[in-house]
Amino acid sequence: MKLHGPWSSEEIQRFLKETTIPMQIAVNDTNTNPLLISLWFISDGLSLWCATQNSAKILRHLQSHPVCGFQISPETMPYRGVRGQAKVTLSDDDGPRILETLVDKYIAEQESDFSRWLLARKDTEIAIKLEPLKITSWDYSTRMKKIVGDDI
């Protein structure tokens, strides 16, 4: 795997562990038109995992062409994040486990109606594993701090 940008592998892994925003995934649809979706993610080293229902359109596209582009970056200052290309593996068996881990990461109130609704559907979740081929990081914290001060 190729790494580009200012962050080391360890810094990228730390960012992925600490970040609680959705990941954007880009694929081509059946007509080779770009399709962009956002999914919750967890990281396992530099590998990324997400899950979606077995009826989701993105799964058909990933089955026929198991590669994607991805980006994880907050929309607030300081602008920083990672993006890249990845090989994709789909797993029925890992879907329920990944969904449970995603709910733990993204939903503060574990006993909420939303959590229960999501977990009630876990048997039809498919796990999506992204194994990055290339990751580019960027971090404009230092440059932006010089311009806007400590407000970032």
Layout of helices and strands:
Elements (H helix, E strand, L loop, with lengths): L1 E3 L4 H10 L4 E6 L5 E6 L2 E3 L2 E7 L3 H8 L2 E6 L7 E12 L3 H12 L6 H8 L4 E15 L1 H8 L4
Parallel strand pairs: 1-8
Antiparallel strand pairs: 2-3, 2-6, 4-5, 5-8, 6-7, 7-8
Structure description:
The protein is α+β, with helices and mostly antiparallel strands and 152 residues long. It has five helices and eight strands. Strands 1, 2, 3, 4, 5, 6, 7 and 8 form an eight-stranded mixed beta sheet that branches. The longest helix is centred in the middle third of the chain and has 12 residues, at 95-106. The radius of gyration is 16 Å and the shape is globular. The model has no long low-confidence stretch (mean pLDDT 93).
- Total strands: the figure is 8
Tell me, rounded to a whole number, the average pLDDT: 93
Approximately how much helix is present in the residues? Answer: 25-40%
Number of helices: 5
Structural class: alpha+beta
Distance between the first and last residues' Cα: 32 Å
Short synopsis of the structure:
The chain has 152 residues and is of the alpha+beta class. Helices cover 30% and strands 38% of the residues.
Overview features:
30% helix, 152 residues, alpha+beta, 38% strand, 8 strands, 5 helices, 8-stranded mixed sheet
